Amino acid sequence: MADLPLTIAIFKHGQWDSVRDGSVTPTGIRLEHADVGSPYRPMVRELAFDVAEIALTTYICAKSLGVPITGIPIFSNRDVTMTPVLYNVRSGIKKPKDLEGRRVGLRSYTVTNNTQCRGLLSYAFGVDSSKVTWVVTDDAHVAQYKDPQNVEYAPEGSSLDEMLVKGEIDAGIQLRVEPQGDIGYLVSEEEGDEIGLRYHRETGVYPIGHVMTIKDDVLKKQPWVAKAMYDAFVASKDRYLAELKGVEHPSKRDRQTLRNQEIVDGDPFPMGLKLNRHSLEGRVRMYVEQRIIAAPMTVDSLFAAETLNL
Known about the structure:
The protein has helices at residues 17-20, 40-46, 56-64, 112-125, 160-166, 189-203, 216-221, 225-244, 252-264, 277-289; strands spanning 4-9, 29-33, 51-55, 69-76, 85-88, 103-106, 133-136, 151-153, 171-173, 183-187, 210-215. By secondary structure, it is α/β, with parallel strands linked by helices. The protein has a six-stranded mixed sheet with strand order 8-7-6-9-5-10. A five-stranded mixed sheet has the order 2-1-3-11-4, sandwiched between helices.
């Protein structure tokens, strides 16, 4: 019997190199790689691929709204840090708690890094996200999603960097403007690292950035595909970690992997639900608190039945 052809869109992470170059292949499957910048919108709006790596926030938002895709417990982009927060010193803000009642710019409300930053602002400083007006320039990846009432769109063509400098917003997350003149760090990169590490150590949550997803139509017809994909990606990840030990000049992503390896004192890319259930439950709670999903979802409802015991 010929191998099952599946289209797949994944990022160029080192741990996926063996899947991308074909030296590791899922049993019974012939992968056809799609070369796209980001598979998020094509996957959740058009079901453009059979399998795709997308942001965890995008996936859970899509799943909650009935988009017919399901997760495979293959995870990447693990990052315990908090994105820096910039502010305009003329705004009168003195501390992060002062963000309540203010206008804070970010690209999109449901971006995973922004979601994590809001969660850590709450954890470290008691900031109530619902009391902040979030000013965005992009809509959510998921077409059916409706932003909370405290989210507003900047005028078309606006630059959040320019709006911050002009004082049209008071602060911003993940902006590119340099901290100089009236612009300073409300939470610096160094402080964000410390907060993220403390959160990880105190809660046991190891943040997840990306998750592998599969179209429900594929899963219904060929349920074995989920486990076959899982095994291939675990093998690719294991090969990458073994080879990383001998890399003389590690890339930026390699250095991030090595740092995470020290932080977790072990595998920086744990796969399966047994090792990630607690972190996923923490993420679901955060999404409910930030009104990204309307109600809690169980971890088991998010992943393919054939992978629930992994």
